[in-house]
Specification:
about 475 residues, alpha+beta, 3 domains, five-stranded mixed β-sheet, about 55% helix, flat
Length: about 475
Amino acid sequence: MKKYSLKFLDVQSELEYQSQRNQHFRMPIFKSGHYGMLVISIIKLILNCYYSLYSDVPAIIATQIYIILSLILVKYKRTYIQIALLFFNYSLMAYEQVLMANISLIALPLFINSFTICNILIILVLDVFESYFLIVTTFSYKLINTILADTQRSYNIYAATCILILFLCYCSRRLNFQSRNNFLLCQKDNLWEKILPKIVNQPFLLFSFDNEKIEFQYKLSKSLNFQCNNTNDLKNFLRTTNHQSQSLEDFFFKENQKVSRNEQGSNTIMISNKKVVYAITYSIFYYQQPIFLVQFTEDILNNNSKIIQSSPKQYKQAQFKLYKFFFQHLQKSICRNDCQSLGFLRNICYKQILNYKLLRNKKFKISEQKLESLIQHVQQLFLYKKITIIYDIQQLSNIKTLKYHFYRILFEIFQGCNKRGSIYVKYNEASLQFQYVGKQLNQDCNDSLQQAIKYLIKHQDRRGKNEILLQIYQEPLVPFI
Protein backbone atom coordinates (compact mmCIF):
# COMPACT_ATOMS: atom_id res chain seq x y z
CA MET A 1 0.00 0.00 0.00
CA LYS A 2 1.05 3.58 -0.56
CA LYS A 3 2.28 5.33 2.57
CA TYR A 4 -0.19 8.21 2.77
CA SER A 5 -3.21 7.41 0.59
CA LEU A 6 -3.10 3.68 1.53
CA LYS A 7 -4.03 2.80 -2.05
CA PHE A 8 -2.81 -0.57 -3.31
CA LEU A 9 0.17 -0.53 -5.63
CA ASP A 10 -1.56 -3.15 -7.76
CA VAL A 11 -4.19 -1.34 -9.86
CA GLN A 12 -6.44 -4.40 -10.20
CA SER A 13 -6.52 -4.95 -6.44
CA GLU A 14 -7.43 -1.29 -5.90
CA LEU A 15 -10.31 -1.54 -8.40
CA GLU A 16 -11.63 -4.70 -6.73
CA TYR A 17 -11.40 -3.08 -3.29
CA GLN A 18 -13.25 0.05 -4.41
CA SER A 19 -15.93 -2.07 -6.07
CA GLN A 20 -16.42 -4.04 -2.87
CA ARG A 21 -16.59 -0.89 -0.71
CA ASN A 22 -19.08 0.69 -3.11
CA GLN A 23 -21.31 -2.36 -3.14
CA HIS A 24 -21.35 -3.21 0.55
CA PHE A 25 -20.99 0.17 2.28
CA ARG A 26 -21.18 3.31 0.17
CA MET A 27 -24.20 2.46 -2.01
CA PRO A 28 -26.43 1.36 0.93
CA ILE A 29 -25.61 4.58 2.84
CA PHE A 30 -25.94 6.70 -0.31
CA LYS A 31 -29.32 5.24 -1.33
CA SER A 32 -30.85 5.08 2.14
CA GLY A 33 -29.68 8.63 2.90
CA HIS A 34 -30.90 10.12 -0.37
CA TYR A 35 -34.23 8.27 -0.49
CA GLY A 36 -34.83 8.98 3.20
CA MET A 37 -34.03 12.66 2.76
CA LEU A 38 -36.27 12.77 -0.34
CA VAL A 39 -39.23 11.29 1.55
CA ILE A 40 -38.72 13.65 4.52
CA SER A 41 -38.43 16.68 2.25
CA ILE A 42 -41.63 15.73 0.40
CA ILE A 43 -43.51 15.37 3.69
CA LYS A 44 -42.04 18.69 4.88
CA LEU A 45 -43.07 20.37 1.61
CA ILE A 46 -46.64 19.09 1.91
CA LEU A 47 -46.95 20.25 5.53
CA ASN A 48 -45.47 23.69 4.79
CA CYS A 49 -47.89 24.20 1.92
CA TYR A 50 -50.82 22.98 4.05
CA TYR A 51 -49.98 25.43 6.87
CA SER A 52 -49.02 28.21 4.41
CA LEU A 53 -45.40 28.31 5.58
CA TYR A 54 -43.69 29.22 2.32
CA SER A 55 -40.37 30.55 3.63
CA ASP A 56 -38.64 27.13 3.54
CA VAL A 57 -40.25 25.91 0.28
CA PRO A 58 -37.45 27.10 -2.10
CA ALA A 59 -34.77 25.36 0.00
CA ILE A 60 -36.82 22.15 0.16
CA ILE A 61 -37.41 22.12 -3.61
CA ALA A 62 -33.69 22.77 -4.29
CA THR A 63 -32.83 19.87 -2.00
CA GLN A 64 -35.20 17.55 -3.90
CA ILE A 65 -33.70 18.53 -7.26
CA TYR A 66 -30.19 17.92 -5.92
CA ILE A 67 -31.17 14.47 -4.57
CA ILE A 68 -32.69 13.37 -7.89
CA LEU A 69 -29.68 14.57 -9.90
CA SER A 70 -27.28 12.79 -7.51
CA LEU A 71 -29.19 9.52 -7.80
CA ILE A 72 -29.10 9.69 -11.59
CA LEU A 73 -25.39 10.57 -11.69
CA VAL A 74 -24.28 7.75 -9.37
CA LYS A 75 -26.48 5.22 -11.16
CA TYR A 76 -24.52 5.71 -14.41
CA LYS A 77 -21.14 6.80 -12.94
CA ARG A 78 -20.44 4.65 -9.90
CA THR A 79 -16.89 6.05 -9.61
CA TYR A 80 -18.31 9.43 -8.51
CA ILE A 81 -19.99 8.01 -5.43
CA GLN A 82 -17.43 9.43 -2.97
CA ILE A 83 -17.82 12.92 -4.44
CA ALA A 84 -21.60 12.48 -4.27
CA LEU A 85 -21.34 11.52 -0.59
CA LEU A 86 -19.23 14.62 0.10
CA PHE A 87 -21.88 16.89 -1.43
CA PHE A 88 -24.60 14.95 0.35
CA ASN A 89 -22.87 15.66 3.66
CA TYR A 90 -22.75 19.39 2.89
CA SER A 91 -26.41 19.37 1.82
CA LEU A 92 -27.26 17.80 5.19
CA MET A 93 -25.39 20.62 6.92
CA ALA A 94 -27.32 23.23 4.92
CA TYR A 95 -30.60 21.42 5.56
CA GLU A 96 -29.76 21.37 9.28
CA GLN A 97 -29.18 25.13 9.36
CA VAL A 98 -32.42 25.85 7.51
CA LEU A 99 -34.60 23.69 9.77
CA MET A 100 -32.89 24.43 13.08
CA ALA A 101 -34.86 27.60 13.72
CA ASN A 102 -38.16 25.69 13.62
CA ILE A 103 -37.12 22.91 16.02
CA SER A 104 -38.23 23.01 19.64
CA LEU A 105 -35.62 23.30 22.40
CA ILE A 106 -36.55 19.83 23.70
CA ALA A 107 -36.08 18.14 20.30
CA LEU A 108 -33.05 20.24 19.30
CA PRO A 109 -30.30 17.97 20.88
CA LEU A 110 -31.79 14.90 19.21
CA PHE A 111 -32.04 16.80 15.92
CA ILE A 112 -28.37 17.88 16.04
CA ASN A 113 -27.13 14.41 17.11
CA SER A 114 -29.00 12.78 14.22
CA PHE A 115 -27.19 14.93 11.68
CA THR A 116 -23.84 14.36 13.42
CA ILE A 117 -24.35 10.58 13.19
CA CYS A 118 -25.04 10.98 9.48
CA ASN A 119 -21.77 12.91 9.12
CA ILE A 120 -19.83 10.16 10.93
CA LEU A 121 -21.38 7.38 8.81
CA ILE A 122 -20.32 9.12 5.62
CA ILE A 123 -16.79 9.69 6.99
CA LEU A 124 -16.40 5.99 7.82
CA VAL A 125 -17.08 4.78 4.27
CA LEU A 126 -14.79 7.26 2.49
CA ASP A 127 -11.13 6.75 1.62
CA VAL A 128 -8.40 8.41 3.69
CA PHE A 129 -7.95 11.76 1.91
CA GLU A 130 -11.68 12.21 1.30
CA SER A 131 -12.44 11.49 4.96
CA TYR A 132 -9.71 13.94 6.09
CA PHE A 133 -11.22 16.66 3.91
CA LEU A 134 -14.75 15.97 5.14
CA ILE A 135 -13.76 15.87 8.83
CA VAL A 136 -11.79 19.12 8.69
CA THR A 137 -14.34 21.08 6.64
CA THR A 138 -17.44 19.83 8.46
CA PHE A 139 -16.29 20.27 12.03
CA SER A 140 -14.28 23.41 11.32
CA TYR A 141 -17.44 25.01 9.95
CA LYS A 142 -19.39 24.02 13.06
CA LEU A 143 -16.57 25.23 15.31
CA ILE A 144 -16.29 28.62 13.57
CA ASN A 145 -20.07 29.02 13.54
CA THR A 146 -20.18 28.30 17.28
CA ILE A 147 -17.31 30.71 18.07
CA LEU A 148 -19.04 33.57 16.19
CA ALA A 149 -22.36 32.97 17.95
CA ASP A 150 -20.97 32.24 21.41
CA THR A 151 -20.93 35.19 23.80
CA GLN A 152 -19.28 33.36 26.73
CA ARG A 153 -16.10 32.25 24.89
CA SER A 154 -15.81 28.60 26.03
CA TYR A 155 -12.17 28.12 25.07
CA ASN A 156 -11.87 24.72 26.72
CA ILE A 157 -14.66 23.39 24.49
CA TYR A 158 -13.01 24.89 21.39
CA ALA A 159 -9.71 23.21 22.25
CA ALA A 160 -11.41 19.87 22.94
CA THR A 161 -13.15 20.08 19.55
CA CYS A 162 -9.82 20.61 17.76
CA ILE A 163 -8.30 17.61 19.54
CA LEU A 164 -11.33 15.50 18.63
CA ILE A 165 -10.97 16.51 14.96
CA LEU A 166 -7.38 15.22 14.96
CA PHE A 167 -8.34 12.03 16.77
CA LEU A 168 -11.18 11.41 14.33
CA CYS A 169 -8.70 11.76 11.45
CA TYR A 170 -6.44 9.19 13.13
CA CYS A 171 -9.33 6.76 13.67
CA SER A 172 -10.43 7.17 10.06
CA ARG A 173 -6.93 6.27 8.86
CA ARG A 174 -6.67 3.21 11.11
CA LEU A 175 -10.10 1.96 10.04
CA ASN A 176 -9.17 2.38 6.38
CA PHE A 177 -5.91 0.53 6.98
CA GLN A 178 -7.67 -2.37 8.71
CA SER A 179 -10.35 -2.52 6.02
CA ARG A 180 -7.70 -2.85 3.32
CA ASN A 181 -5.82 -5.45 5.38
CA ASN A 182 -8.98 -7.54 5.70
CA PHE A 183 -9.55 -7.28 1.96
CA LEU A 184 -6.02 -8.59 1.28
CA LEU A 185 -6.49 -11.47 3.71
CA CYS A 186 -9.76 -12.45 2.02
CA GLN A 187 -7.95 -12.51 -1.30
CA LYS A 188 -5.10 -14.61 0.13
CA ASP A 189 -7.64 -17.20 1.34
CA ASN A 190 -7.95 -18.25 -2.32
CA LEU A 191 -4.17 -18.44 -2.81
CA TRP A 192 -4.05 -22.24 -2.69
CA GLU A 193 -6.84 -22.69 -5.23
CA LYS A 194 -5.28 -20.28 -7.71
CA ILE A 195 -1.68 -21.44 -7.84
CA LEU A 196 -1.72 -25.15 -7.02
CA PRO A 197 -3.20 -26.30 -10.36
CA LYS A 198 -0.48 -24.33 -12.15
CA ILE A 199 2.53 -25.69 -10.29
CA VAL A 200 1.48 -29.23 -9.37
CA ASN A 201 1.32 -31.46 -12.44
CA GLN A 202 0.25 -34.57 -10.54
CA PRO A 203 -3.39 -35.24 -9.64
CA PHE A 204 -4.10 -33.94 -6.16
CA LEU A 205 -6.81 -33.37 -3.59
CA LEU A 206 -6.86 -30.23 -1.43
CA PHE A 207 -9.06 -29.92 1.65
CA SER A 208 -9.13 -28.11 4.99
CA PHE A 209 -10.18 -28.90 8.54
CA ASP A 210 -12.83 -26.72 10.19
CA ASN A 211 -12.03 -26.60 13.91
CA GLU A 212 -15.47 -25.27 14.80
CA LYS A 213 -17.51 -27.88 12.90
CA ILE A 214 -14.81 -30.54 13.47
CA GLU A 215 -14.97 -31.77 9.90
CA PHE A 216 -12.91 -31.86 6.72
CA GLN A 217 -14.07 -29.54 3.94
CA TYR A 218 -13.40 -29.88 0.23
CA LYS A 219 -11.47 -27.06 -1.46
CA LEU A 220 -10.00 -28.25 -4.78
CA SER A 221 -9.04 -31.30 -6.82
CA LYS A 222 -7.32 -32.01 -10.13
CA SER A 223 -7.41 -34.95 -12.58
CA LEU A 224 -8.79 -37.57 -10.18
CA ASN A 225 -10.28 -40.74 -11.64
CA PHE A 226 -12.83 -40.96 -8.82
CA GLN A 227 -15.60 -38.51 -8.04
CA CYS A 228 -14.62 -35.84 -5.53
CA ASN A 229 -16.26 -32.50 -6.27
CA ASN A 230 -17.67 -31.47 -2.90
CA THR A 231 -17.40 -32.06 0.83
CA ASN A 232 -19.70 -35.11 0.80
CA ASP A 233 -17.55 -36.82 -1.85
CA LEU A 234 -14.46 -35.98 0.21
CA LYS A 235 -15.96 -37.53 3.36
CA ASN A 236 -16.88 -40.66 1.43
CA PHE A 237 -13.30 -41.02 0.12
CA LEU A 238 -11.72 -40.46 3.55
CA ARG A 239 -14.08 -42.91 5.29
CA THR A 240 -13.84 -45.73 2.73
CA THR A 241 -10.03 -45.54 2.39
CA ASN A 242 -7.87 -47.05 5.12
CA HIS A 243 -4.35 -46.73 6.43
CA GLN A 244 -3.12 -49.32 8.95
CA SER A 245 -6.61 -50.51 9.91
CA GLN A 246 -7.97 -46.99 10.41
CA SER A 247 -9.84 -44.72 8.03
CA LEU A 248 -8.03 -41.81 6.40
CA GLU A 249 -10.44 -39.48 8.16
CA ASP A 250 -9.28 -40.70 11.57
CA PHE A 251 -5.65 -40.73 10.44
CA PHE A 252 -5.64 -37.13 9.20
CA PHE A 253 -7.55 -35.98 12.28
CA LYS A 254 -4.84 -37.48 14.53
CA GLU A 255 -2.06 -36.04 12.33
CA ASN A 256 -3.62 -32.60 12.63
CA GLN A 257 -3.58 -32.92 16.41
CA LYS A 258 0.08 -34.01 16.48
CA VAL A 259 1.57 -31.42 14.12
CA SER A 260 1.94 -28.01 15.80
CA ARG A 261 1.16 -24.72 14.08
CA ASN A 262 4.86 -23.84 14.02
CA GLU A 263 5.70 -26.65 11.65
CA GLN A 264 4.28 -28.50 8.69
CA GLY A 265 3.88 -32.24 8.33
CA SER A 266 4.64 -34.18 5.18
CA ASN A 267 4.97 -37.89 4.54
CA THR A 268 4.32 -40.75 2.12
CA ILE A 269 2.02 -43.54 3.32
CA MET A 270 0.38 -46.69 1.95
CA ILE A 271 -3.42 -46.72 1.79
CA SER A 272 -6.00 -49.27 0.66
CA ASN A 273 -9.36 -48.94 -0.99
CA LYS A 274 -11.40 -51.99 -2.08
CA LYS A 275 -8.38 -54.31 -1.80
CA VAL A 276 -6.22 -51.97 -3.91
CA VAL A 277 -3.08 -50.85 -2.10
CA TYR A 278 -1.09 -47.80 -3.21
CA ALA A 279 0.94 -44.89 -1.89
CA ILE A 280 0.00 -41.25 -1.47
CA THR A 281 2.00 -38.24 -0.36
CA TYR A 282 0.29 -35.83 1.99
CA SER A 283 1.35 -32.42 3.33
CA ILE A 284 -0.17 -30.32 6.11
CA PHE A 285 0.08 -26.54 5.98
CA TYR A 286 -1.31 -23.90 8.32
CA TYR A 287 -2.86 -20.68 7.09
CA GLN A 288 -5.72 -19.56 9.37
CA GLN A 289 -6.80 -23.21 9.35
CA PRO A 290 -5.11 -26.57 8.62
CA ILE A 291 -4.77 -27.28 4.87
CA PHE A 292 -4.21 -30.85 3.62
CA LEU A 293 -2.68 -31.59 0.23
CA VAL A 294 -2.86 -35.21 -0.95
CA GLN A 295 -0.87 -35.97 -4.11
CA PHE A 296 -1.37 -38.96 -6.39
CA THR A 297 0.59 -40.20 -9.40
CA GLU A 298 -0.76 -41.42 -12.71
CA ASP A 299 0.27 -44.98 -11.80
CA ILE A 300 -1.44 -44.73 -8.46
CA LEU A 301 -4.70 -43.74 -10.12
CA ASN A 302 -4.54 -46.82 -12.35
CA ASN A 303 -6.87 -49.36 -10.78
CA ASN A 304 -4.93 -52.25 -12.35
CA SER A 305 -1.92 -51.48 -10.12
CA LYS A 306 -2.02 -53.43 -6.88
CA ILE A 307 1.03 -51.89 -5.20
CA ILE A 308 2.62 -48.76 -6.53
CA GLN A 309 5.96 -47.37 -5.38
CA SER A 310 6.09 -43.57 -5.35
CA SER A 311 9.16 -41.68 -6.52
CA PRO A 312 10.75 -39.74 -3.62
CA LYS A 313 12.93 -37.78 -6.04
CA GLN A 314 9.97 -36.51 -8.08
CA TYR A 315 8.06 -35.70 -4.91
CA LYS A 316 10.93 -33.67 -3.46
CA GLN A 317 11.36 -31.74 -6.71
CA ALA A 318 7.64 -30.92 -6.85
CA GLN A 319 7.66 -29.96 -3.18
CA PHE A 320 10.67 -27.68 -3.71
CA LYS A 321 8.93 -25.91 -6.62
CA LEU A 322 5.83 -25.46 -4.46
CA TYR A 323 7.74 -23.85 -1.58
CA LYS A 324 9.79 -21.68 -3.92
CA PHE A 325 6.69 -20.41 -5.73
CA PHE A 326 4.96 -19.58 -2.43
CA PHE A 327 8.02 -17.79 -1.11
CA GLN A 328 8.46 -15.59 -4.18
CA HIS A 329 4.83 -14.50 -4.38
CA LEU A 330 4.29 -14.06 -0.67
CA GLN A 331 7.44 -11.93 -0.53
CA LYS A 332 5.83 -9.52 -3.00
CA SER A 333 2.59 -9.44 -0.99
CA ILE A 334 4.39 -8.72 2.26
CA CYS A 335 6.31 -5.82 0.69
CA ARG A 336 2.93 -4.25 -0.04
CA ASN A 337 1.30 -5.12 3.26
CA ASP A 338 3.08 -5.92 6.54
CA CYS A 339 0.87 -8.82 7.60
CA GLN A 340 2.14 -11.22 10.25
CA SER A 341 0.18 -14.25 9.04
CA LEU A 342 1.61 -13.92 5.52
CA GLY A 343 5.09 -13.49 6.97
CA PHE A 344 4.63 -16.65 9.01
CA LEU A 345 3.61 -18.63 5.92
CA ARG A 346 6.53 -17.23 3.96
CA ASN A 347 8.93 -18.36 6.69
CA ILE A 348 7.58 -21.90 6.58
CA CYS A 349 8.26 -22.00 2.85
CA TYR A 350 11.75 -20.54 3.28
CA LYS A 351 12.55 -23.13 5.94
CA GLN A 352 11.53 -25.97 3.64
CA ILE A 353 13.62 -24.50 0.79
CA LEU A 354 16.65 -24.56 3.09
CA ASN A 355 15.86 -28.14 4.12
CA TYR A 356 15.64 -29.20 0.49
CA LYS A 357 18.93 -27.55 -0.46
CA LEU A 358 20.84 -29.02 2.47
CA LEU A 359 19.48 -32.55 2.22
CA ARG A 360 19.84 -32.69 -1.56
CA ASN A 361 23.40 -31.41 -1.74
CA LYS A 362 25.87 -33.92 -0.29
CA LYS A 363 28.94 -31.80 -1.13
CA PHE A 364 30.26 -29.42 1.49
CA LYS A 365 31.64 -26.09 0.31
CA ILE A 366 33.21 -23.81 2.90
CA SER A 367 33.17 -20.18 1.83
CA GLU A 368 34.01 -16.83 3.39
CA GLN A 369 30.90 -14.82 4.21
CA LYS A 370 30.21 -11.46 5.80
CA LEU A 371 28.60 -12.11 9.17
CA GLU A 372 26.40 -8.99 9.22
CA SER A 373 24.98 -9.80 5.75
CA LEU A 374 24.05 -13.33 6.78
CA ILE A 375 22.29 -12.10 9.91
CA GLN A 376 20.45 -9.26 8.13
CA HIS A 377 19.23 -11.67 5.45
CA VAL A 378 17.44 -13.85 8.01
CA GLN A 379 16.40 -10.88 10.17
CA GLN A 380 14.31 -9.57 7.26
CA LEU A 381 12.13 -12.68 7.57
CA PHE A 382 11.28 -11.90 11.20
CA LEU A 383 10.66 -8.13 11.13
CA TYR A 384 7.28 -8.70 12.77
CA LYS A 385 9.05 -9.99 15.92
CA LYS A 386 11.00 -6.69 16.26
CA ILE A 387 14.20 -8.40 17.40
CA THR A 388 17.24 -6.21 18.13
CA ILE A 389 20.74 -7.33 17.09
CA ILE A 390 23.59 -6.25 19.39
CA TYR A 391 27.10 -6.75 17.97
CA ASP A 392 30.35 -7.16 19.91
CA ILE A 393 32.89 -7.55 17.10
CA GLN A 394 36.61 -6.96 17.58
CA GLN A 395 37.77 -7.54 14.01
CA LEU A 396 36.57 -7.77 10.43
CA SER A 397 33.42 -9.88 10.57
CA ASN A 398 34.15 -12.30 7.75
CA ILE A 399 33.66 -15.93 8.74
CA LYS A 400 34.37 -19.26 7.09
CA THR A 401 31.20 -21.33 7.09
CA LEU A 402 28.71 -23.46 5.17
CA LYS A 403 26.40 -20.73 3.90
CA TYR A 404 23.04 -22.51 3.84
CA HIS A 405 23.77 -24.50 7.00
CA PHE A 406 24.51 -21.18 8.72
CA TYR A 407 21.23 -19.74 7.40
CA ARG A 408 19.42 -22.77 8.87
CA ILE A 409 20.95 -22.12 12.31
CA LEU A 410 20.14 -18.40 12.12
CA PHE A 411 16.55 -19.23 11.12
CA GLU A 412 16.08 -21.34 14.27
CA ILE A 413 17.69 -18.65 16.45
CA PHE A 414 15.32 -15.94 15.19
CA GLN A 415 12.35 -18.29 15.35
CA GLY A 416 13.17 -19.29 18.92
CA CYS A 417 13.99 -15.78 20.17
CA ASN A 418 11.20 -14.03 22.08
CA LYS A 419 9.30 -11.16 20.48
CA ARG A 420 10.90 -7.75 21.01
CA GLY A 421 13.94 -9.59 22.40
CA SER A 422 17.64 -9.14 21.64
CA ILE A 423 20.27 -11.36 20.06
CA TYR A 424 23.84 -10.69 21.24
CA VAL A 425 26.48 -11.53 18.64
CA LYS A 426 30.04 -11.78 19.97
CA TYR A 427 32.88 -12.46 17.53
CA ASN A 428 36.63 -12.45 18.06
CA GLU A 429 39.63 -14.54 17.14
CA ALA A 430 38.68 -17.20 19.67
CA SER A 431 34.98 -17.77 19.05
CA LEU A 432 31.64 -16.73 17.56
CA GLN A 433 28.73 -16.72 20.00
CA PHE A 434 24.99 -16.03 19.86
CA GLN A 435 23.09 -15.30 23.07
CA TYR A 436 19.33 -14.76 23.32
CA VAL A 437 16.26 -15.43 25.47
CA GLY A 438 13.85 -17.97 24.05
CA LYS A 439 13.65 -21.59 22.91
CA GLN A 440 16.59 -23.94 22.63
CA LEU A 441 17.56 -25.47 19.28
CA ASN A 442 15.99 -28.89 18.87
CA GLN A 443 18.85 -31.37 18.45
CA ASP A 444 16.52 -34.37 18.12
CA CYS A 445 14.89 -33.24 14.86
CA ASN A 446 15.24 -35.34 11.71
CA ASP A 447 15.56 -32.60 9.09
CA SER A 448 18.50 -30.47 7.96
CA LEU A 449 18.69 -28.66 11.33
CA GLN A 450 20.30 -31.72 12.92
CA GLN A 451 22.92 -31.70 10.16
CA ALA A 452 23.56 -27.96 10.58
CA ILE A 453 23.95 -28.33 14.37
CA LYS A 454 26.37 -31.23 13.90
CA TYR A 455 28.70 -29.26 11.59
CA LEU A 456 28.43 -25.73 13.03
CA ILE A 457 27.46 -25.75 16.72
CA LYS A 458 30.26 -26.35 19.22
CA HIS A 459 28.25 -25.87 22.40
CA GLN A 460 24.65 -25.08 23.26
CA ASP A 461 24.12 -24.06 26.88
CA ARG A 462 21.06 -22.93 28.81
CA ARG A 463 21.77 -20.17 31.30
CA GLY A 464 18.93 -19.45 33.65
CA LYS A 465 15.40 -20.34 32.70
CA ASN A 466 15.26 -19.27 29.03
CA GLU A 467 18.66 -17.74 28.23
CA ILE A 468 20.44 -19.66 25.46
CA LEU A 469 24.15 -19.45 24.54
CA LEU A 470 25.35 -20.92 21.23
CA GLN A 471 29.04 -21.22 20.40
CA ILE A 472 29.94 -21.71 16.71
CA TYR A 473 32.99 -23.55 15.41
CA GLN A 474 35.68 -21.34 13.88
CA GLU A 475 35.48 -23.61 10.84
CA PRO A 476 32.73 -26.17 10.12
CA LEU A 477 33.36 -29.75 11.22
CA VAL A 478 32.60 -31.54 7.95
CA PRO A 479 33.59 -35.17 7.37
CA PHE A 480 35.46 -34.50 4.14
CA ILE A 481 36.02 -31.48 1.90
